[in-house]
Write a structure and sequence with these properties.
Blueprint lengths: L3 E5 L22 E5 L5 E5 L1 H13 E5 L5 H5 L8 E3 L4 E4 L3 E2 L1 H32 L3 E8 L2 E9 L5 H11 L8 E4 L4 E4 L5 H15 L5 E4 L6 H4 L4 E3 L5 H7 L5
Parallel strand pairs: 1-4, 1-12, 12-13
Antiparallel strand pairs: 2-3, 5-6, 6-7, 8-9, 9-11, 10-11
Helix pairs in contact: 3-4
Amino acid sequence: MVHAIALVDLDDTLFQTRRKCPADVSEVDLTVMAYDREGQPASFATPRQLAWIEWLRRGTVLVPVTGRSVDALRRVDLAFDHAIAAHGGVVLRPGGLVCPVWQNRIGQAAEAVRGDLEALTAGFDRQAQAAGADVRVRIIAEADTPLYVVAKHRDPAREEELHALAELVRPAVPSGWTVHVNGNNVAYLPPHLGKRQAVEHLLGELRAAHPALPVIGLGDSVTDAPFLALCDFAMIPGQSQLAERAFQGLLA
């Protein structure tokens, strides 16, 4: 029986890399949830996360809302009908079809910021080279539409070095852009792009199809907060960036 519509972030919400798994959970108790491009296990769920995933699978209209590309989303072991990928850059319909209305809207807006995306990429790369940091910086695109800039350290254990570079680049970020810093991930999103914008586009349709169902949102990052605010109820992992900000001062 379906109890709710669930708009769910994936990485660090339902599962995480092995490095981020709790130290008290043994390897044999982890379940592979996502694979890398070579088909090797890349993300894992703990037994408690898996129990929650199974409830979501059985009890909700499950809609992933993720920063993952469409290709990376397809490497996740999770069935869904609708989905939002690439930080809101793509809305997927049942059968994995791209929503043409949203694709057209994003495509038109993306052309106006192509130069900014290229400038940010080049600027971050220059800062990384000057610091001798082994960082990969690139523009994420879907269907030849440039969406946002992402930077990752090739050694995830050195994420603080990545964060320091992000601070150096911050003055060059255009006004109104979202800067997403969480773990070994720094992303720069133009104003037209975001999970909230894509959720707003899809949510009316979901509510119309399921008018009696509450909408619950799940996310771990500060940048998930805008889409969570559109839901009837919001849930966050207890150990997460968003929880740290939300409970800051309250538990002191």
